Amino acid sequence: MKCFNASKSVLAPWLAAIALTGLMAMLAKPANADDLIEDAAIGAGVGLGTGVILGESVGVDDAVNGATAGAACNVANDALQEEGERNLTEDLLVGAVAAGGVGILTNDDSFLTNAAQGAAACGVIHVLD
Question: CA quadruple 59, 57, 106, 94: dihedral positive or negative?
Fold first, then answer.
């Protein structure tokens, strides 16, 4: 029974993070679904890269943090900005908050480490877009 509780406590945060990312995907406009997936993929890659740079053991949680930040950045940009315009400060803040929050669910790293991953992911997306 103890093993079941341990696996439940490990799986619950991952399921919550995946559900949050899926919710962001559903909120995106259908025409922008490709952009959302692209931003989430870029964010996942940047999350893995920042995991290496920050000296952590790189894992799926880094990719989830980055992907969530990328998806949040995309959704926020669609909601807050005119077509083709991005705001770097907003992108960085949205990424930091999204990854920081999801990081609380997916790993035991500090909020600041997770926020840095999200800001980096959205910063890269901002530059590439």
Answer: negative
